[in-house]
């Protein structure tokens, strides 16, 4: 015979017991459950309101069992069902200062002569005879006395009592000490009426409940016709063991029968072979009590509990993982849930402190952020800065001398301001083929620069620019600054519609001005109209700075330098006048990567098709994400597009990619800085790779020199080595870590 129960190959329910039989097995539901064994469900012993599981007060159903509980002021009897009064006066005199009187389900404090009970119903106050107030011995209130503003008194009752019609006495209700009843209490007009559970009968005191056998004896004692029956019953009890004496020797419940006493045990206990003693059943020994994790045996029952990070389900047995990540603000940044636990992770540039919080890492505090000169900490990142006269190397850390031009590079295409006139309407285009920088300052303002200023001062650009080719220019350049105003428009750089772009091709040329550098700032602000109910008006201001380079080849015998300068100034002024007219009619556009953008738009128009994200950002998983380095934002397609070979982009959220110095269209797509340009630019950087850690060179590329003793360099492509400091030396040349510095 195969023992299916021992091998756990049976299909008995979790709340059933498997019993092996020859060639088979059978399933029997555990006590407290019903069913055929393969399906068992809990029996709700408390379901019958009349019987109430045998509980005289409250019955609580639990899986496979039930529990009886008592109201406040009562305690559970040994049979686990009946409720007995607690004598509160035995414990610290019930908290009473003087006299404590126990009652069924409660107690009362009283005072000696010459004192009366205070409002807290526990302490006693010495009586007074002066005036009609609560300190007077004859105030008349049964419980609480309150003085009224007019000098009289008002009576109140303790919780569970009601004020009588005479406004002085207090009537007891079932809400206080169960109305003085041992079992059940019902409120009536005349006061609480007591009742008993069906196994009990009401005592002649009208409050206490006694077992029905005892009630029969008691009633017969007052019935003269049944004296003979009483004698027979008394004789029988004297001759044999009876529950009236020492509970019949039973541990728990005792019942008189014709053959003597019969002992029984409550649920959760088993009767021992002596027929008297009750022993607790340890439910945890069989299948861990059906608990998923921990089972703890209790007197008459058991309890399931879970490991940390799990919660107990309503069946009081199954443990389910708590998903801490579903709670709001569990982690500052990213939350990962694990069975019984969770983990918080921080974004790059942040460090975890405690279990859930993320704090900014001050990279500048650790070896100056590996910056050559200055280090500026930002939230989640940092920037290296250089002194005047130097610029940041492409590795974003070293400072190198500012080179004004590259001898072998092709000239970078210049910005052009082209204006035309069709049907009496002026239209202007500013094309930006290289060295552009788009900075969205706020929701309604942005700054845009195009080209490289000849004399870089305060407005020095935030990133590397494509270096121009070396050609002679006459300094200083021609500079013009103009301010324009557009009514009823917001500063939003949005792509121009394709229909309008087609029409622009038919316009007659008016002016063409090649510009070295343009810095354009658009700012929107609401201007209040006069009058209370007038709506505020949207006004946009555009500030434009132009620089035009003077070339030596333009100077001739007929027109000297001053002559060329005046011509250029007049040409720029004429172009600005035309530009002003085109801006007033909202006919000014800027061109990036073949897409024309409107500088400012009317509020209703600004929201069309571009809800949510600003220029330079795209919608991803419901969030606005800025276009990363190596890509540019295409307004025509409303997406981030990788830079084509021969171009690069080292700044986020830009509208075009910069041409590589070689300008031959070779290299990799998506280049994130000049060093990734590839192609013929490798000739400019000597066609060699970066210096490895522990080495350096003037430009970060080979040929490289070894870091001398006393210095180290942990990063590739650097132009210097860091000194150990304090006169310390390294174990060898070419050290790659501060740990290589030897202490004296």
UniProtKB/TrEMBL annotation:
Pfam families referenced in this protein's UniProt entry, alphabetically: cEGF, EGF_3, EGF_CA, Ephrin_rec_like, FXa_inhibition
PROSITE patterns: ASX_HYDROXYL, EGF_2, EGF_3, EGF_CA
UniProt cross-references to InterPro entries, sorted A to Z: cEGF (IPR026823), EGF (IPR000742), EGF-like_Ca-bd_dom (IPR001881), EGF-type_Asp/Asn_hydroxyl_site (IPR000152), EGF_Ca-bd_CS (IPR018097), Growth_fac_rcpt_cys_sf (IPR009030), NELL2-like_EGF (IPR024731), NOTCH1_EGF-like (IPR049883)
Cysteine pairs bridged by disulfides in the record: 325-335
Record has Glycoprotein as a keyword: yes
Keywords, in A-Z order: Calcium, Disulfide bond, EGF-like domain, Glycoprotein, Repeat, Secreted, Signal
Superkingdom per UniProt: Eukaryota
Subcellular localization(s) per the UniProt record: Secreted
Gene Ontology terms: cellular component: cell surface; extracellular space
Gene Ontology molecular function: any one: calcium ion binding
SUPFAM superfamilies (alphabetical): EGF/Laminin, Growth factor receptor domain
Keyword Transferase: no
A Gene Ontology BP annotation from the UniProt entry: signal transduction
Record-annotated EGF-like domain positions: 1-41, 85-121, 280-320, 321-359
PANTHER family to which the protein is assigned, alphabetical: SIGNAL PEPTIDE, CUB AND EGF-LIKE DOMAIN-CONTAINING, SIGNAL PEPTIDE, CUB AND EGF-LIKE DOMAIN-CONTAINING PROTEIN 1
Protein name: SCUB1 protein
Gene: Scube1_1
